[in-house]
Amino acid sequence: MAEQYERYVGGTPEVERVIFDKLARDLMRVQVKIRKRSRAAGIERAFHAKAVLGVENARLRFRQDLPEDLRTGFAQPDAEYPVIVRLSNASGVRQPDFAPDLRGAALRVQTGPDHAHDLLMTNFPVSHARNAREFVVFAQAMAGANSNLRKGIALYAKLPLALGWATAARMRRNVTAATGREVRSLARETYWSRGAILWGDAGPVRYRLRPAADAPAAPPASRSDPDYLGHELAARLARGDVVFDLCVQRYADAWSTPIENGAADWREEDAPVIPVATLTIPGQDLDTADARAIALQIDQLAFDPWNTTDEFRPLGNLNRARKAAYEAGSAHRRGHCFITPMPARNVVVGRFLRPGFRALNRVVPWHRLPTWLGLLNIEAIRQVLRRDNLIDTEIREVVPKAHPVPPPIDESLRVRRTYDGTYNDLSAPTMGALGSAFGRNLPPVYRPSLFDMPNPVTVSRELLRRDTFIPARSLNVIAAAWIQFQVHDWVNHKRYPAGTKSVEVPLPSGMTWINTPGGAPETVMRFAEDAGVRRAGSTDPPTLFGNTASQWWDGSEVYGGDETVAKSLREPTGGAALHLEEGHLPAGPDGIAITGFRDNWWLGLSVMHTLFAREHNTVCEALRSQYPRMDEDTVYHTARLVISALIAKIHTVEWTPAILATELIDIGLTANWSGPPKNWLTHLGLWLVDAHALTGIPETLPDHHATPYSLTEDFVTVYRMHPLIPDDYEIADHASGRTLRTLGFNDVQGAATEPLMREAGLTNSLYSLGIAHPGAITLYNYPRALQAFERDGEIIDLSVVDLARTRRRAVPRYNDFRAGLHKPRLRRFEDLTADPDTLARLKDVYRTVDEIDTMVGLYAENPPERFGFSDTAFRIFILMASRRLQSDRFLTVDFRPEIYTPLGLDWIERNGMKSVILRHCPELAGFLPRTASAFAPWRPAMPDGHVRRD
């Protein structure tokens, strides 16, 4: 019904929502500016900061003669409800009551245990702004204008430049008329809703609150008492009740009673005023401890006109904008969400620097520049990526809907990670949580006609299959295990159960495939299809997919992704420790270790999970010792925080610089965690380009960069690093260097893993992985074992699955992918590789360079010197790596001793991968690299006095 009265900005609710979300962020910046100008201790309300009255015992009683057509919902004859009342000055600054200002009334009518209606009004009949844009521009201009000079500059210079002279003049007239009156008592003021609301089947109304006809007169306004309005109300209530009439004006037509124009008056001759109810604030003593406590509690409430039911839904542009603005503003004020304004110098310098580096990079790529200049170049690239390559995929309501008053947040959610990733962002509880959708860095390209073009099996056989192992000699296999350990924490697409809904890839002529153990040969390769997420009302094939892992860096691969799993992994007695059997993970009925994430299980994962389960238990012991009064549940959750942050630190400052082994990356990633080096040139550059990078991310505020946090389908694509996995393994004794067993991948995975782990032990397993090289991330190096791999009742070629799923998830092909990340397009195959054999195979498999699969292109691309993967993949990395830290409340604003404990923060500061390994396997001290991370090749032992050779 509401739609017949409204006109959406941009033509649709979806377009309008994007515009209003930006306006909401602009209002949050206004709050920050007000705080700075007024030197407030915290973020205040953007408007109505100073409360004059807050009581919870008022009553609203509807009239017995309520017109028949206005009797709807809670509005019934003689119905009476308790009401919370807040009267306030309208300014966002706490200024004296005698300063020119508007006044506001906010009512919360409690119509049932779970139902309330918020009514918000101001003591002038119309808004100074016709719409949300004018409202926000005015707020921006006036923010912090706490002197006559600043107000004059705002009204007569900033406002006309932003909105034009005619609009600015009209707004000044309204503001002057509204704020120029002398206000003697808030009990004698009339308050108007300005905007309309739906009143059931009666249609739109505007409402107003006017003082009862017999309200006592007020004394003259004080020019010396800054709080005279509050004192006057207190004296009035000490003598008796304060009574108002609640009235409505009915909608007549779009001309005389417009819905979308907040600056238009509904004249009484067009829309007569109809009294519908009486508001009574009972006489009381406001100068008691109880009254002051209640007033303080009410001052913390977030009033919102959308706290209602759809029957009384707010209408019009300003009200629809309020939905985004009130939610964001109140969340910002409460410390539930944050905004980080960019300094003006960064904006100005960035406008020159980004095109400058773009021109320079046509001649000299960023990785060939001097280190300090390369760092600034990467920062400039990241700013462009943040602007252009964060795409919001969240599913929201199409048409704004009313909602109940949000319940208060459980205090425990402020100080611990939840089991499923909810409430990391307190203002958007489901953001990044288990089940939330993957985002996008590039617009999806859904082309079903090319799902099997060229045949992914042919692509795999010609360009991916490993004939000869190509080692990555700067790394060890622990690095390969580590990234799988991390990916299992971040991403896991939901799939249909095997055999219920499948992708079928046709096989090249003459080839067959056995799809299930013991099954018959078939002419198609079959595997479970991803379960897509459909938008409401859409019949298009889904290009949005849910993540069955929490997308935060929360250690869910160790701890589990829901409460049931997490609690089952703890000691049976209910203690804080994770359950281990003689230092090892217990095996389930299927032979796979019982831990937070059990898929694709092999020796490398078992080593990582066992190591960090032991580390968790050690942190628990330290917490108990340091804080003997801490209960076991708090010990568990604090230890989880510590382990999760330690894992994030290891990945940021150890694993990533190991696989991207350059000084520039080492400095950049260390700066992400602990700030840039003490180098005046680097500091000057960052001060000019991105002042927020002058400290490590843990010392900043959460920042989603205007897009709700999620990991992306493109991120998943660049982390397809299966070539790291070797096909052959040598299990060796660390003490003697003697080979204990030589095994293939199938002998170290699945149900075979845990018996081998117990036989070899954690120390020898770590040693064996530490002295061995992983595979290089390149063409012709996909593990043979993963090209005929049994998983979940299917036999799959994982390389074919990777190719097919990337296409079906609508990730752009390689040429579009790199162009979307601001790299030059390939014009011919020779632009990708100069290797004659690869060139011939690419031309044989693909008709044009635009058909090259993203994974193939990333593997074929010649990476920067000492890089373990391509520069194109690196673009996604520099965007998303810092985002995983920057968006996380527990790695930014709540990375503090009150949450982690001083011991916890010290543990994270002092430890890394080497110290974790040595705490649990001290025998390995002599084998770890002296000047490199634990992910670099270890020194092998020398059996029988002979030097060990690769």
UniProtKB/TrEMBL annotation:
<keyword id="KW-0479">Metal-binding</keyword>
<keyword id="KW-0275">Fatty acid biosynthesis</keyword>
<dbReference type="InterPro" id="IPR050783">
    <property type="entry name" value="Oxylipin_biosynth_metab"/>
</dbReference>
<dbReference type="InterPro" id="IPR037120">
    <property type="entry name" value="Haem_peroxidase_sf_animal"/>
</dbReference>
<protein>
    <submittedName>
        <fullName>Catalase</fullName>
        <ecNumber>1.11.1.6</ecNumber>
    </submittedName>
</protein>
<dbReference type="GO" id="GO:0016702">
    <property type="term" value="F:oxidoreductase activity, acting on single donors with incorporation of molecular oxygen, incorporation of two atoms of oxygen"/>
</dbReference>
<dbReference type="GO" id="GO:0006633">
    <property type="term" value="P:fatty acid biosynthetic process"/>
</dbReference>
<keyword id="KW-0611">Plant defense</keyword>
<dbReference type="InterPro" id="IPR034815">
    <property type="entry name" value="A_dioxygenase"/>
</dbReference>
<dbReference type="GO" id="GO:0020037">
    <property type="term" value="F:heme binding"/>
</dbReference>
<keyword id="KW-0443">Lipid metabolism</keyword>
<dbReference type="Pfam" id="PF03098">
    <property type="entry name" value="An_peroxidase"/>
</dbReference>
<keyword id="KW-0408">Iron</keyword>
<keyword id="KW-0925">Oxylipin biosynthesis</keyword>
<keyword id="KW-0444">Lipid biosynthesis</keyword>
<keyword id="KW-0276">Fatty acid metabolism</keyword>
<dbReference type="GO" id="GO:0006979">
    <property type="term" value="P:response to oxidative stress"/>
</dbReference>
<dbReference type="InterPro" id="IPR019791">
    <property type="entry name" value="Haem_peroxidase_animal"/>
</dbReference>
<dbReference type="GO" id="GO:0046872">
    <property type="term" value="F:metal ion binding"/>
</dbReference>
<dbReference type="InterPro" id="IPR020835">
    <property type="entry name" value="Catalase_sf"/>
</dbReference>
<keyword id="KW-0575">Peroxidase</keyword>
<dbReference type="InterPro" id="IPR010255">
    <property type="entry name" value="Haem_peroxidase_sf"/>
</dbReference>
<dbReference type="GO" id="GO:0004096">
    <property type="term" value="F:catalase activity"/>
</dbReference>
<keyword id="KW-0349">Heme</keyword>
<dbReference type="GO" id="GO:0031408">
    <property type="term" value="P:oxylipin biosynthetic process"/>
</dbReference>
<keyword id="KW-0560">Oxidoreductase</keyword>
<keyword id="KW-0223">Dioxygenase</keyword>
<dbReference type="GO" id="GO:0006952">
    <property type="term" value="P:defense response"/>
</dbReference>
